[in-house]
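Quick one: structure tokens for this chain, please?
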Amino acid sequence: QVQLAESGGGSVQSGGSLTLSCSFSGSTADTFIVAWFRQAPGQEREEVAHVTENLNAYVEYPLRARFTISRDNAKRTVWLRMNALNTKDSAIYYCAARAWGKVDSYYWGQGTQVTVSS
């Protein structure tokens, strides 16, 4: 019901900022909860943030001071703004979406690489 495409990844020096974009499409995609996950080598995938159709946003507490998630339903785009990046933020970042009431039924993008150098 939804297709996702991430962009905006790349290489950045520690202390820098980066904005990731997730474009979503589909007949009912604008009603979906959209989330960002990340996975570093040798680590489990973890949720970074999510935002609802009604623009209720949540960022995981350890990242709350540095990361911001936003959404524009008219543009069918979700952004993840990452500030004060450090090497521990290096990971593949994935955009994912799910319908209300389907907690474990995510649609996934292909991911975008973020590399932070010291």
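The mean pLDDT is 96.
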